[in-house]
Amino acid sequence: MADSTDRKVPTVVADGVDIVYRVNGTGAGRGSATAALNRILRRKQTEKASGVRRVHAVRNVSFVAYRGEAIGLIGTNGSGKSTLLKAVAGLLPVENGRIYTDGQPSLLGVNAALMSDLTGERNVHLGGLAMGMSRDEIKARYQEIVDFSGINEKGDFITLPMRTYSSGMAARLRFSIAAAKDHDVLLVDEALATGDRSFQKRSEARIRELRKHAGTVFLVSHNNKSIRDTCDRVLWLERGELRMDGPTEEVLKEYEAFTGDKAAKPKPKPKPQAAAAPKPAPAPGGAGVPLPS
To answer: Per-residue pLDDT tens for 241-268?
Structure first.
């Protein structure tokens, strides 16, 4: 009889992935535009001489994600979480190694590009088309998307340009558009950290639905509670290296010990207070006590 792991369908395979950024040094921008263009054309030969610094954002990361999993990506600031997510989405090249995907990854982040001068209504249609939905599908799901986002709870904001939205409203609408479609691989970057607790609960429930429809979800978040509520597996990146990969509670326990997360530690029980000593009875003739006649 085949082992249960044989029935797992891999959706993302990262094999020894290195991602490197190149940052121009402060002294490399002097001179004419022609000289600058020549430096760009000769970049590979002159990186060191022109002051270009290599930043190794992700180092030799390998993992396999399977259909139906929700995987959290955690780590301190600058650990490479969002960079790895963009590489899985095909938006960043890898320096070494390979990333293989089964199906089309869809990246959803709080900075996902929508048209700020267009109304929320128009952005719902354009965002749906960009994800491959038909016009009929968008029309059928339009009201569901608007209701899910909560944009109109305090007014008819869906008919206003997105530049009039707060950052939280815009992020909620982006998530609602992306969540309206079932994805092969959905990559969520901090979207659940935006909005009130009611919206976060709706988002977490929707991610669980996406998993049931045979999708794979990656969630980057600094909110450990969102990771606990949503993910059954966690990848912990630190300084670009994969430090731990395993069940959510096991990895978060080690991560919280590493960061000294006070919120994750149980609060000490209050010490029992000593019983108050009974107050002595007022002496006869004391203030406010009449003497017997």
So the answer is: 999 999 999 999 999 999 987 554 445 5
| CATH homologous superfamily for the domain 9-23+52-103+216-262 | P-loop containing nucleotide triphosphate hydrolases (3.40.50.300)
Helices (H), 27-185: 33-41, 43-46, 81-88, 120-130, 135-149, 167-179
**pTM for the full model?**
0.70
Could you give the CA distance from residue 197 to residue 204 in angstroms, rounded to a whole number? 10
Domain boundaries, the chain: 9-23+52-103+216-262
Ramachandran quadrant class, 150 (left: phi over 0; alpha: psi -120 to 50; beta: rest): left
C-alpha angle with apex 70: 251 to 199, nearest 5 degrees?
A: 105
Task: Specify the pairing of strand 10-23 against strand 53-66.
Answer: antiparallel
DSSP 190: S
Place of tokens 């994750």: 264
Burial of 2 (0-12, 13-18, 19+ CB in 10 A): exposed
